[in-house]
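Journal club prep, shared notes

We agreed each person brings one worked example of a sequence with its structure written out as tokens. Mine is CREG2 protein. I'm keeping it raw so we can talk through how to read the token line rather than staring at a rendered picture. Sequence first:
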Amino acid sequence: AGTARFLARHNTWGFVATRAARGKIQGMPYGNCLLLSDGPINNSTGIPFFYVTPKDNTVTDLLKNPMASLTLPEADGNFCRKNVIDPEDPRCARLTLMGQMVTVPPEEVEFAKQAMFSRHPVVRKWPRSYEWFFMKMNIEHIWLQSW
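Then the structure, token by token:
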């Protein structure tokens, strides 16, 4: 449990996999890297929050089918970097969270802002015309690879 919480806390990005909801690739697996935060620096929750735009194909998919998986690698962790181990080496842990991606309800938006902007201050400067909003994952399953 400690390793899973560590990966959720210290990863600032993750790989989100969805089922494509558009065009010729409809129904096929689709993936994208997204910035995330599990809470402000002093208040880690283990729940991944995202700042997203409907202009992103991943978000288009999620709005049609909210089921997704999120993989958080230990790529940036001290063990792999310090020991010069490739992030794909089984000794580098990986956490995959599966569940539903939902729009953050109004009563949680302020917390989502604090979570995301404390970890990624630059996102405040992203173009407002992209219609950014917050999503979070309601986790239903957890898979940890930690050898």
